[in-house]
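Q: Predict the assembly, please.
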Amino acid sequence: MSYQVPRGTQDILPDQIHKWHALEDLIRQFCYVYDYKEIRTPIFEHTNVFKRGNDASDMVNKEMYTFTLENSSTSLTLRPEMTAGVVRSYVEHKLYGEADQPLKMYYVGPMCRHERPQKGRSRIFHQFGVEVIGAKHPLLDVETIALGWSFVSALGLKDMKVLINTLGDDASRDAYRAALKQHFAKDIDHMCADCKRRYEQNPLRILDCKVDKESAIMKTAPKMKDYLNEESKAYFEQVLAGLDALGIPYEIDDQLVRGLDYYTHTVFEVVSLNKEMGAQSTVFAGGRYDGMVKYFGGPQMSGIGWALGMERLILACEAEGIALGETESLDIYVLCLSPSVSVQALQIVSACRAAGYKSDMDYQERSFKAQFKTVDRKGVKAVILLGEDEVKANMVTIKRIADQKQVQVKQEEMISCLDGLFQEETTYDCKEGNCTCHHEE
RNA sequence: GCGGACGUGGUGAAGUGGUUAACACAACGGGUUGUGGUCCCGUCAUUCGAGGGUUCGAUCCCCUUCGUCCGCCCCA
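A: Predicted assembly structure:
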């Protein structure tokens, strides 16, 4: 009991891993047909990759795992998100010079944030995300949303909603920011401490405030849409038209500003409406960023991306009763009837494995009955019985569980016999209560 | 960082200031010595998250600590 995982982290145990494999397989399929390629960047970066000048977000200011090793002056940080690392890599390797732009990338991996753990919120969690860098077109915004939306739809999730908004370009945002500051100027003293901080650092995020949400000053606050210039407005309208064209339902939420400060134009959030999700209901979210590539020393190029919380996705699937991945089963189990033949049993298991059958045997010298229990529990399709009689005769006994068909064959013929048994039509009439097969509950 | 609830075997859980900590599931062994799933019998917590304190005596009361859950905050 003295050793345990650090707070807010968890082991993903073997009996849960099928969910992760199922999701990862589907992710690769989707990214393949969308022609997005995987990128892998380091799990830690120089701190200044994440901590950039004007960033006022909690994520970079309060929640980063930042460390400096002894005998070193280099400050490193465990990545709290992926976009910064991807953009850094894009610029560092001068990928903006590649022929095919935009570059379409995806990633899957762990992120670290020092937050208070809660349902759907851990200190190490996994994100699947996409980044499209090197071109700016509203239909690219639509494409990335479509990728995520079709992905969660393919899983069977139904209680999902797309919330979308625009922050406009820099000029629109500057104008809006000034208007907000003016609006809140005389009341900021009565507002919550967080809002006071936001007022100075990033007035847009005052709109995110839950404390003062119902106050009159909040309700009469100027709207972003009234400060959008023509170009920004047109951009947003094209995004919405693209979503309409693909039949993706959405809801415009003009309070949506997102927590990361690098966003421009399109921002969106896809949330689960299922009550079992708890307070952390955002499954994937992202937006466009116009300034990041230049910030990292590249040309003026735009990007768009989103990130999806894998743990939250699993929660959402569980909340909607969606099973991920197949339950484990075994093709063949070798039943060892006497410890004296265990070496021969191992040779037979090896032969089955070499032939491609998922196979196993007992290594605990357990009773015959106990070994058969394992057969039931693991959903074994065929059993090979091996006792002293078989070894003497150089035979094996093969029993197909589904219909209890049992044959004895020479060991040389074992694999071809198994091939036959597995290929043969095994669905047969099995009336309830009238047969001896095992029915799974 | 703030507020609240909780922590008993592999799992789900009952329980009480007093001698041996229910019950169920799972696991293992046996009845059935080479043919499983049902049934019956047996075994399985010197210990109640950890550390300290009060007490003749603590799983139960108090403190500390670690962790989980819920909400705030934040975000995927």
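The domain at 17-169+229-319 of chain A is CATH 3.30.930.10 (BirA Bifunctional Protein; domain 2). The radius of gyration of chain A is 29 Å.
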